[in-house]
Specification:
Helix content: 10-25%
Largest sheet: 6 strands, mixed
Strand order of the largest sheet: 4-3-15-8-9-12
Radius of gyration: 17 Å
Shape: globular
Oligomer: single chain
Length: 229
């Protein structure tokens, strides 16, 4: 049997209250899934089909902590999100079928190099430089629970000041619909995380800032931004 050239650890996220890890193979992110955020980004929040971008699994910062301000940007933004982890294969599913594929939920941050994202938008290019970079996906431990979360307060503070505040019920596309729609294009399953969008109030952060995201019934995530590495 062939051996790997290098033995690389698989990215993983702790499961809250357990001595276990959830292995991560892919990270999908839903764009503009709250009407208020869609408006602040200059879009019409009609219920069009959702769209997605991805982040590499090694962008995860499991449990939060301290991360450096990323290179290549002068306009780093925060986006607090409910993250759903999947538990079993799901493909071309209905919303009801998709709801049965939930392993649990976590608090996530979709950190965004907004200047680079906007440059890509203006030129019709992919968002990779703006979204898919190291340390761009801090995440809290996953709270196990098979029922999709459909409502609950979501809030982000920066240095103790509330920046984002909303309710999961404000999603344009709730979790079962997102999973079902994404499953029309991918064979989803264990190891897949979906960042489900952010409420309005996104904005810039700088080195020295401390971010705390909280979602009712899910948990808390704390991240401190240090000087660029």
């Amino acid at each position: 049997m062939a051996a790997y050239v290098f033995d690389l650890p698989l990215p993983a996220v702790p499961v809250a209250g357990e001595a276990t890890l959830y292995p991560v193979r892919r990270i999908f992110c839903v764009g503009r899934n709250y009407a208020g955020h869609a408006r602040e980004m200059g879009s019409d929040p009609t219920r069009e089909p959702p769209f997605y971008f991805t982040k590499p699994a090694d962008a995860l910062v499991a449990g939060g902590g301290t991360i450096p301000y990323p290179p290549g940007t002068t306009n780093l933004h925060h986006e607090v999100e409910l993250v759903v982890a999947l538990s079993k294969p799901v493909f071309r599913a209905t919303a009801a079928e998709a709801a049965g594929a939930v392993f649990g939920h976590a608090v996530g941050l979709d950190l965004t190099r907004r200047d680079l994202q906007n440059q890509a938008k203006d030129k019709g290019r992919p968002w990779c430089l703006g979204k898919a970079f190291e340390f761009s996906a801090p995440i809290s431990p996953i709270r196990r629970g098979s029922a999709p979360i459909l409502a609950g307060e979501i809030v982000l503070t920066v240095n103790g000041e509330v920046r984002q505040h909303g309710d999961i019920a404000d999603m344009i596309w709730p979790i079962p619909d997102v999973i079902a729609h994404l499953s029309q294009y991918y064979h989803l399953g264990l190891g897949d995380l979906i960042f489900t969008g952010t409420p309005e109030g996104v904005g810039p952060i700088i080195a020295g800032d401390t971010l705390v995201g909280r979602i009712a019934g899910v948990g808390e995530l704390s991240v401190a931004i240090t000087a660029a590495d």
